């Protein structure tokens, strides 16, 4: 087995790899494989968030918020034009933070499912 299965994730950062290694410590082989499958399917790469944020400049603001599950903020972005583009610019700068926050949430959900043995 590959020593670092997380390195194959698109756009993965050192911090994310460290976080995932720390989270999965103590999992059995089958739990770890279940976690990897679940997390890989749910994870968003920072580049994807960046692309969705850039869409806000050409017409539909807030797509990045819908993608990371922040439906309320996405609706606000749509109706305010991304807070008159200021929110979109802030999200453009913080796209990695948006992705990391979302990915950590998905990692917690995935590890709980993996521990339950589903």
Automatic annotation (TrEMBL):
This is TM2 domain-containing protein. It is found in: Membrane. GO terms for cellular component: membrane. Its main location: membrane. Keywords: Membrane, Transmembrane, Transmembrane helix. It comes from Mucilaginibacter ginkgonis. It is a multi-pass membrane protein. Residues 52-93 form the TM2 domain. Signal peptide: none annotated. The lineage of its organism: Bacteria, Pseudomonadati, Bacteroidota, Sphingobacteriia, Sphingobacteriales.
